[in-house]
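Dear colleague,

Following up on Tuesday's group meeting, I ran the structure prediction for the two-component complex that the binding team flagged. I've pasted the input sequences exactly as they went in, so you can double-check that nothing got truncated or mislabelled along the way. The structure tokens for the whole assembly follow below. Feel free to forward this to whoever is handling the docking comparison.

Inputs:
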Amino acid sequence: MDETRTEIGELGEFGLINKLTEGIIRINDETVLGIGDDAAVIDAKGKQTVVTTDLLTEGVHFNLMYTPLRHLGYKAVIVNLSDVLAMNALPSQVTVSLAVSNRFSVEALEELYEGVKLACRMYNVDLIGGDLTSSVGGLMIAVTALGFVEAERVVLRSTAKKGDLLVVTGDLGGAYMGLQILEREKEVFKEAPGAQPELEGVEYILERQLKPEARKDVIEHLREIKIQPTAMIDISDGLASEALHLATESKLGVRIYEDKLPIDQQTYDQAREFNLDPSLCALNGGEDYELLFTIDQSDFEKIKGDPHFSVIGYMAEQSEGCELIFRNGGSTELTAQGWDAFRKES
Amino acid sequence: MDETRTEIGELGEFGLINKLTEGIIRINDETVLGIGDDAAVIDAKGKQTVVTTDLLTEGVHFNLMYTPLRHLGYKAVIVNLSDVLAMNALPSQVTVSLAVSNRFSVEALEELYEGVKLACRMYNVDLIGGDLTSSVGGLMIAVTALGFVEAERVVLRSTAKKGDLLVVTGDLGGAYMGLQILEREKEVFKEAPGAQPELEGVEYILERQLKPEARKDVIEHLREIKIQPTAMIDISDGLASEALHLATESKLGVRIYEDKLPIDQQTYDQAREFNLDPSLCALNGGEDYELLFTIDQSDFEKIKGDPHFSVIGYMAEQSEGCELIFRNGGSTELTAQGWDAFRKES
């Protein structure tokens, strides 16, 4: 792909950091000091600071055979911003650390950083630090994200109330179906290396997997329409898993209606093609990075008909348990079959 | 060592996180919310927040053949606290993320976390989050540390003035000599697996390598004796490298006197035994985690004779360059030969 290949050892750690962080301009007033000292300095200006961190490892969270490095850098930032947003805070800084083996060239790392910097620009976030080290294994990316929020606006997982409506943003299951297609094409490619991948008509769900977005727009929109969710979580491990977190930590039960699940047409069609139940993909497919939250029933009028949101159920008494209600009126216990980095392969 | 071995897959990610973070009590008022939601929440209470992050990788930063997991967990926290302290801030929170392969048992990770929690207790720091994931390669630890400082107390690397005294805490080169001994014993053990390691009389320098401390005591002491350093950095890559950082970023030169370098007797004796120049070990051996700072000459009386500190030189004009002055009055250009995670092995 690239014509030149510069070895990482030629630049050394400091030279490489300088090259990768070139052209970074401080965006937020709260960022007092960025990259270049022992630590960065931020000033919350009276707000509370939200802190989250995620580790992405090659072969577990991503496969470089079909993940462009630029997209990987973008996604590594996004998954952390999504956690900040799920506290009802606005993200403002990230640190990005990489462990890389010498099979990566400087050019490859520059591509990865292009994605990191693009995500920072798109979301008005400052890249304030990180670490860069060699690895004897594969590529690993550790991101920490910070954001700010007024103390009274923080939204936890544990504060939903009985009778609250359960609301989800966007649509579900797309990232999972995108992954299925990429895995299929990988197998095809292994058997016939010259084969062209069949990706027409599935662009949306591929992007859901490879270049997801965090719902900053939703957090800003909720402020505009004056809704403070009673509890909130982002969907990284799958709707069912996250809904169970909200219920368990709020000491409540939950009801989710299958016919209310927002599923995009591409997701639906591809699920059918793979002989999968689209509803199960929406319930258990992870990495959608949508927001799942609860609101007081009195707020329903504010979101009624709003294309950002789908009301998919409500919070029940803890004794009523957690259930999925089928289209035909039957029901089953809601169980989490989503992503777990330590799950045994079945 | 342990009688039982519990596989990580038996607990899953959430069960494992619960087990490892058992018994954590919030210490700092600034920690509003710790582990258990999408993100932690902190309240800087009007101070500025300092943020730093480090990534430690197996086979690069540590060798599990001679690094007890408890010490590794301790050290992973300490190296980050040291960066916070080097900004003249007091550390208050950490996040700790691990990528582990299935060759580690739950019991092994508990041991590592014992070290993490011990460091947190010793330094009054709250463990507020992290991530836990599997790895196809070796063990990797990513730590982010936060701390607070009044805006007017922040000390950068770039603000030393010409004529300022260069001061270092504790003694230097010990961690490096400790590493040399561990590497030697590893080779001995490889050739004769039954051999008992020869570690008598070198306990201090082994501890410098395996279980270093961060100089929180020094930062508190400087406040008591009313010294605000004009510039500061912590010594992770070696004195020469860090002194060059201070000089370069303050647009100054520097003079370091060989005869002023603080070297412990064990470090000195072992360097001689290994046919190494003790001064070079002090200048280029990394991982001492001491503080290197500059003070105005008018502050000299406050630290004169203080056992915490050694005045080892002064800041010169940029045009005068960076030099090491030998005992005999001769001199040489100061060069950094310290740690670089990407350095080619010579």
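Chain A is about 35% helix and 25% strand.

Cheers,
M.
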